[in-house]
Amino acid sequence: MAPDGTTIRGADAATVRSAIESGDPLPGTAGFAGEADGRLVRDVLGREPLYVDAAADDWGFDPTDLTDPELLHAGTVVDAAGDRREAWSLPTPTVETAHEVAVDAVREAVLESVRESDPAGLAVAFSGGVDSALVAAGVPDVPCYVAGFAGAESHDEAAAREAAAAMDRDLRVVAFDHDDIVRAVPEIARATGRTNAMDVGIALPLYFAAEQASADGFDRLAVGQGADELFGGYRKVVDPASDHRVDADTVRGATREVIRTLPHQLPRDVLTLRAAGVEPVAPLLHDRVVDAALRLPADLLATDDERKIALRRAAEGVVPEPVRTAEKKAVQYGTYAARELDRLARQAGYKRRMEDHVGQYVDALVAGEA
């Protein structure tokens, strides 16, 4: 495998070497990937994307640099001969049944992670929910950005305005319109290699917020990614036995199932942000936070009445009460990105009766045919 100039991202070679030798899946980093001692590696949650091109005997962090890129599975080590093995798997630590102890562990892990973010050149992607508010609380003097469709105050914009006022933060609203969507969709698709409606809808508001932050002179954007997966933020983990979207039949089992989707999801976000001109910073995905989350009992993850229970309790006294308890929509819906992408597709003749009408429209935009 040929190195591309930068060997390891997210950790030093000694840490990666030690993790390989010990088999420790959470060696105290926020994720890593690259080449160490002639071996390619990608951490257990795939927080840093890494692509291989076996036909060209090449690899890289950016799939656009390769002829036939393949995303390396998380937790994998590839030796100099090209042989692959799973070096790390998601750990199963002992469950902490004492609620106060478990919540204290989450609070300590989260606060340490968000407070160690270097504020130089940093901005925060801010939706007004508890996740981004916790991230913002760690860097109190940096600006916050929220994206929303122009001309109609979106759920995320309204929530961000209220939260920013409660936290006395500098909020910068990025309004995007149909022309912006048409321009950005091909750029996102080229950067990520993804054209499905869900991925594009999620990526659009991230891209617009990051693009404006970059234009304002910031080169890093702190995000709250990982909180929903780690802490039981999805509705489908509440009653998994009766929810077709998960295979597990327990809250903890469903949460672990959702956590295992991160290695596929995160490259979309990382590559989108980099294409917009910023480097992502995801403190809620640090190993110490992952470890604390994996130890939570089911009733501190999600119930019929509340989700992300431990994280919300850990946020007491850190963020204002209305922000701590606020519910928010998924970013593609809370910003109206998905709604307006669907509207554009229908205006272009891709009707809802057609199979994957938005995906067809995205493909046409990428091909320059719409």
Automatic annotation (TrEMBL):
<dbReference type="InterPro" id="IPR014729">
    <property type="entry name" value="Rossmann-like_a/b/a_fold"/>
</dbReference>
<dbReference type="Pfam" id="PF00733">
    <property type="entry name" value="Asn_synthase"/>
</dbReference>
<dbReference type="GO" id="GO:0004066">
    <property type="term" value="F:asparagine synthase (glutamine-hydrolyzing) activity"/>
</dbReference>
<dbReference type="InterPro" id="IPR050795">
    <property type="entry name" value="Asn_Synthetase"/>
</dbReference>
<dbReference type="InterPro" id="IPR001962">
    <property type="entry name" value="Asn_synthase"/>
</dbReference>
<protein>
    <submittedName>
        <fullName>Asparagine synthase (Glutamine-hydrolysing)</fullName>
    </submittedName>
</protein>
<dbReference type="GO" id="GO:0005829">
    <property type="term" value="C:cytosol"/>
</dbReference>
<dbReference type="GO" id="GO:0006529">
    <property type="term" value="P:asparagine biosynthetic process"/>
</dbReference>
<dbReference type="GO" id="GO:0005524">
    <property type="term" value="F:ATP binding"/>
</dbReference>
<keyword id="KW-0067">ATP-binding</keyword>
<feature type="domain" description="Asparagine synthetase">
    <location>
        <begin position="105"/>
        <end position="243"/>
    </location>
</feature>
<feature type="domain" description="Asparagine synthetase">
    <location>
        <begin position="257"/>
        <end position="352"/>
    </location>
</feature>
<keyword id="KW-0547">Nucleotide-binding</keyword>
